[in-house]
């Protein structure tokens, strides 16, 4: 796997983790945090928990599958990304349109409120 693909995967797992962390077991949460957030190697995690590297790998892979399953069923990350895309689009339209300054200010306030809800 290329460095760019690894980075994309790490970013995706971290985003999924943000949405679904509470739905994972404590062990899954811990291993994913160590591996993806803290950049521990499989060997370092294995040493910390006195288990094999293979066991760590399997726990992480299973946790990734669970995150993907939740996303497939609930789609929170997809909805989040779509909302952000639409907010950016709305902001670009507002910046380029010839509406009154007071209307623009109201729209910007709404955009800011929606962004703060994230």
UniProtKB/TrEMBL annotation:
Record keywords, A-Z: Coiled coil
Segments forming a coiled coil: 53-90
SUPFAM superfamilies, sorted: Sigma3 and sigma4 domains of RNA polymerase sigma factors
NCBIfam families membership: PRK00118.1-6, YlxM
Protein function: Might take part in the signal recognition particle (SRP) pathway. This is inferred from the conservation of its genetic proximity to ftsY/ffh. May be a regulatory protein.
Protein family: Belongs to the UPF0122 family.
Record protein name field: UPF0122 protein FHS19_000492
Organism of derivation: Paenibacillus rhizosphaerae
């Amino acid at each position: 796997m290329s460095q760019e693909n690894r980075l994309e995967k790490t970013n995706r797992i971290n985003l999924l983790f943000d949405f679904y962390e509470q739905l994972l077991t404590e062990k899954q949460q811990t291993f994913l945090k160590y591996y993806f957030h803290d950049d521990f190697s499989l060997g370092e995690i294995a040493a910390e928990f006195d288990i094999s590297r293979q066991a760590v790998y399997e726990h992480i892979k299973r946790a990734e599958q669970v995150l993907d399953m939740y996303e497939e069923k609930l789609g929170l990350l997809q909805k989040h990304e779509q909302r952000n895309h639409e907010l950016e689009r709305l902001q670009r339209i507002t910046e380029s349109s010839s509406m009154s300054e007071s209307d623009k200010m109201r729209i910007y306030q709404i955009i800011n409120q929606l962004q703060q809800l994230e």
